[in-house]
């Protein structure tokens, strides 16, 4: 039997949505208030979904303590209470849109899951009104 | 890389779930309190999901400002603070169940999206306990 | 020892904010979209707070089953799935603003509580962004 | 036209995640605080999704009153305000992980839906951070 | 300048609302499903409010890291993933109603706050519909 | 009859909690991750409460459209999508803790309310777990 198990964690980061080769004025035209020169910030929510067989002995797809550890060690500790443009190595040179954060998160977390309980989806909520899902495709 | 981007907006409307060719008594039997003659109402939430390639230059599937504009100009301005049975041209003659509102919303919004960032799903939450998803199928 | 115990319930109603002696145009000027002629609606939340001594034997201020019964029999059954302008006797001739709904609710519920566990506050949430509290003063 | 309709209900239960053939110490090692000998508890949320054709006459996939009745009669009344290890016949001998609760819920509810409006998904939220989805596969 | 600062944490516990000198039948009559013999459980939320002067140097009433430590060391670690009737020394012989949990929490936390930033209120949410506030009076 | 009416709005800002006369190391010791040199950010919620007589003619304490306008023109437009340390004139030289943001917000909004419907409370939620209330005392 196949089940999907999900875990939500939050992180509080600042960012500026902007392209380095554009002027402030051009960025403002393209990205609006999101490209404010000194940045702004969000309480992001990361929702990760794992798909796998329910282990008939334990009744788990995967132990969520293990999932939390993977999330923390490979993503959350690098982004929580950080500036996504300046402080995060794996986002260097990447415009930190919600789409790009979700893709970067997938790339950081995916190698740590096995075939038997594989990463199915990454959702990043920028606010409770805006969110992006990436499924590794 | 393909991502799904979603936006939530709310609207506050009144409606009556009823069939015009039935008596009040027959409607009450079929639809219960939802067919109260003078109507009732909800704070609906519309959650729209767009599927598309992440633009490698901007890092966007689509600019949410554009999505919000499409939602407002083609759906929200017609239903927010309105009576869904009496005030909305594109719902005329349609029983305003959550299912039918979701389908009507799809039909109003879908023409405004392109192949590169196409409408994937419409979710309408009637309350935080009842909701419907329609994917254009 | 004095504690405050609260219970939340929801109701789904339609209403029109308008004064009977004004024209539709004047009402629209005064109340905006809230005075739409055919009404609109909300999922209201009623949050009621009771203040009283904690009974040293039972550990209760009051049994919430009793509170729920009072809420249902004296208020919720009259307003849920109703039109607040047309269907509710105790709102007849009253402009159904959130303020007036809260006051009417207080007046309906207050006689059913005793001195030992008295009604302290009525909160009505019209949406998750707008709410009113009335404390009987 | 095919739509997905969902309903959320909650239930408050206690449980202990543990395997009967292991010692308390071994269970604590495998399941951590979730295997506390005297149990702990949650406000679970059950979110059920039905997939089906929208009936062109009524505008319903299925009447949610019917869905609520199926949920209550076949699952909720057995688990709400109960101990999942000791009080629930259909969980006897089953480790009450969220995965296993979701599967058991599917098995109890699925026979009561027809092909025209079939059970599509069971989601069980153990907390607002942990949840499992099962689709009968 | 005086401000109120609040912190929310959750804990997942089982309990049984019952009086030891009553039979199961009498408890069921008095407390209903809440006295189910084998218990049930909740995701409780503890919301604590501290009142004090804003320190003109730091801009803090109190450092929330300190508040979290007080909450964890003196209350949360004793109740989270525990059975409130059997596992918690400071609730021994106390009927674990929400009122009594709030009072016990106040008594455990209050000695750890100083006059300059004193405990103002303890709120315990049993569910998102039921909650109790205690202010030490 | 006196009622309290509240309105919630959100704003997304970056900030750094730090004292200008301290070194980065000293700030990190005093404020922890909140003093990360390049900042971090939040989706703040501003909840404002007005206390006043319910106008017997309109049924309003105050028109929420007016409240929203005051909130936007005097506070939200200066902080939303901004860096609270660098972009906001009325926070210049002020350590942007939640307490200080609440006080600054009170000072900006209070002059725009009248005695008949006066500002009663400013709540700022930094996250859904941390919030501060200021009542002008």
Account of the protein in words:
Six copies of one chain form a homohexamer. Chain A has a five-stranded mixed β-sheet with strand order 3-1-2-4-5. The first copy, chain A, has helices at 24-31, 64-79, 98-109, and strands at 2-15, 40-53, 82-83, 117-125, 130-134. Chain A has one domain (2-134): 6-pyruvoyl tetrahydropterin synthase/QueD (Tetrahydropterin Synthase, Chain A, 2-Layer Sandwich). The radius of gyration of chain A is 17 Å and the shape is elongated. Chain A has 137 residues and is α+β, with helices and mostly antiparallel strands.
Rg of Cα set of chain A: 17 Å
Average per-residue pLDDT of chain A, rounded, comes to 97
CATH class of chain A: Alpha Beta
Largest sheet of chain A: 5 strands, mixed
Extract low-pLDDT stretches of chain A. none
Helicity level of chain A? 25-40%
CATH superfamily of chain A, called what?
A: 6-pyruvoyl tetrahydropterin synthase/QueD
Query: What is the tally of helical segments of chain A?
Result: 3
- Give, in order, the helices and strands of chain A: EHEHEHEE
How many angstroms does the end-to-end distance of chain A come to?
24 Å
CATH architecture label name of chain A: 2-Layer Sandwich
């Amino acid at each position: 039997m196949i089940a999907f198990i999900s875990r939500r964690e939050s992180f509080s980061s600042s960012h500026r949505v902007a392209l380095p080769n554009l002027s402030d004025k051009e960025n403002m035209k393209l990205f609006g208030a999101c490209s404010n020169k000194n940045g702004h910030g969000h309480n992001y929510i990361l929702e990760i979904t794992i798909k796998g067989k329910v282990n008939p002995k334990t009744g788990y797809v995967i132990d969520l303590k293990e999932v939390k550890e993977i999330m923390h060690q490979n993503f959350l500790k690098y982004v929580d209470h950080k500036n996504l443009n300046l402080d995060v190595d794996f986002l260097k040179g990447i415009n930190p849109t919600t789409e790009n954060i979700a893709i970067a998160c997938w790339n950081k977390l995916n190698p740590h899951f096995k075939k038997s309980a594989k990463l199915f989806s990454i959702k990043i909520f920028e606010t409770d009104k805006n969110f992006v899902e990436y499924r590794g495709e």
